[in-house]
Amino acid sequence: MAEKRDYYEVLGLKKGCSEDELKKAYRQMAKKYHPDLHPGDKEAEEHFKEVNEAYEVLSDPQKRARYDQFGHAGVDPSYGAGASGAGGFGGFDMGDIGDIFEGFFGGGFGGSRRSANPNAPRRGSDIRMQVAISFMEACKGVTKSISVTRMDSCKECSGTGAEHGTAMKTCPTCGGSGQVRVQQRTPFGVIATQRPCDSCGGSGRIIEKSCPACSGRGSISVTKTVEIHIPAGIDDGQSLSLRNMGNAGANGGPAGDLLVTIVVRPDPIFRRQGYDIYCEMPVSYCQAVLGDKLQVPTIDSNVEYTMPEGTQPGTTFRLRGKGVPRLNGRGRGDQYVTVTIDVPRNLTKEQKEKLRAFESSLSDKQSAKKKSFSEKLKDVFNDLGDNNR
């Protein structure tokens, strides 16, 4: 089996990181390698799968505890298995370790207890997906159609796995309990443990005649097109939960959820911070000196802003209420516009002469920054003179 990278290394984290750090790192790495941003790039696709696998394990407290203690073998017993098939633990696998802890402490490994009834309803697993949208779609809201492949309850057998009209019988091996008791030699000595029954797969029942539609599994893989409404104001890395759109449950249990993480593509003009928007506005030297009425782009349309005379490079002005709509529907952020000076190039000889003449005509008093600099420079030389006396 190919050597796997450490899950913390995959996400650029250290062992013991917080849940918030884990989520933030996952969003950044998933966005970095998302297939929509790297079409046809197989290496990026593999990195994306690796990131999702790491997050799936580390975001689950029980799986993370096993991984922290035993590494990859703690969450994948087949990883690193030798000729004995023991996964590197001297004749017993991770499932046995869970049974040992269950025997000692009365609960399953990681604190979970096996259900006393193998036929009790069980909730289906969640499905995680990512959807990439544009900056404007995130600001305005959008409805997207996505294709979801999920395990759905077989309609032919109502999820039992048995052919319609046939019965299921109690497993003779485990007597319907779904568990069998075995003895195994371990580093702790000979210990009696319980395992899921191999004959019935832990269900406690045996299908006499399998449903031809699902081959006895009780569920079938289906692909559906689902429309999701992405609200205005959603930010990069936030998730939407679609109830009961995940994989079907077992024994009549509810389906899991569909969890959709939003990836927002960068915009060439706007940058977002919270609900505020930032951008730069290039103006000419003449506009900055004389002032002008600017047509400033916003996420809605252009708005007019009167720039005063003598506006300096780097000046930032605010457009109230022109930012991103808040998710709760109450108000919007602001837009901050920073002025940059577009310095002309490739001037003609005549233009250069006129520019030099204009520069010569200016006094220090007409340039606040130049005046301030001259005063500071004068103070520096005065201080040098005082020190040399």
Could you give a quick summary of the protein structure above?
By secondary structure, this protein is of the alpha+beta class.
Q: Percent helix among the residues?
A: 25-40%
One letter per element, helices H and strands E, the order comes to HHHHHEHEEEEEEEEEEHEEEEHH
Mean model confidence by pLDDT: 81
Strand order in the sheet with the most strands: 10-11-15-14
**Residue share in β-strands:** 25-35%
Number of beta-strand segments: 15
Number of helices: 9
Rg measurement, Å: 33 Å
Structural class: alpha+beta
Q: Determine the N-to-C terminus distance.
A: 80 Å
> What is the makeup of the main sheet?
4 strands, mixed
Could you name the ranges where pLDDT drops below 50 across 5 or more consecutive residues?
Answer: 81-96, 98-115
Tell the overall outline.
elongated
Report on the structure:
This protein is α+β, with helices and mostly antiparallel strands. The protein is 26% helix and 26% strand. The chain has nine helices and 15 strands. It has helices spanning 7-10, 19-33, 42-58, 61-70, 94-105, 135-140, 285-290, 349-361, 368-387; strands at residues 127-133, 142-153, 168-170, 179-186, 189-196, 205-207, 219-230, 239-242, 258-264, 271-273, 276-284, 292-297, 302-307, 316-319, 335-342. It has a four-stranded mixed sheet with strand order 10-11-15-14. A three-stranded mixed sheet has the order 1-9-8. It has a two-stranded antiparallel sheet with strand order 2-7. Helix 2 packs antiparallel against helix 3 (42-58). It is elongated, with a radius of gyration of 33 Å. Residues 81-96 and 98-115 have low confidence and may be disordered.
